[in-house]
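Feature request disguised as a bug report, sorry. It would help if multi-protein outputs had a clear separator. Right now it looks like this:
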Amino acid sequence: MCGSVKFQITGDISPIEICYCQMCRKASGGPLSANSPVKSDEFRITHGSDAIDAYESSPGELRHFCSRCGSPLFSTCADRPTVVRVRVGTINEPLPVRPVASYFTGSKCNWWEIRDDLPRFETE
């Protein structure tokens, strides 16, 4: 949001995954989170690495955010060291991919109605 952090994805971006789990909702401040997994060796911080902080939301799961404005940026998981889950709302350019599925729909908030026809998974 503040422009302190910039990153580059040099490879293909994977289709968008919509997550309704409680952790993602709290991290995004909304009813869902939209993420795209990218290969960690194809993801590079190009500006503002000193502004990035992280919160370990569960063991081995780090949610990286801008320490200046608080914007969620990406997450990493110790169990999947070759993947960075980018918050697609942080990408300015048009994306060649679209959402492919909704995950953790069984824990979505009661005030949000899912109105798409994406495949739904109550847990993962």
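(second protein starts here, but nothing in the output says so)
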Amino acid sequence: MCGLCGVLGGGEHWTQGGATADAPSGVMRRRTRARQVALANAALGHYGLTLNDWQGSAFIVSNRTGASQVVDHFGAVWPAAEALAKRPCDPLDAGLLAGLQ
């Protein structure tokens, strides 16, 4: 998918919570997104994947070979992760949970 599709995505997703109603500068929204990315990377690393925020409007899921997928909202991260990992990514996997502790 080209990067433009990530920009032209739909409206707000529930995972964005009320962060967009915060300060006009968007400081709280940026902090929320940064926290989401950090937590997701802790889990995605188990599958050889990373997540990056793309200018506060989308997320980019990438694998170790450089393949990536742009997703519109945080709720689409896990399906993209499974597509890039080419295997199921179980958030309740015992190895993943042990690694997070």
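Even a blank line would do. Unrelated, but nice: Strands lie at 49-54, 58-63, 68-71.
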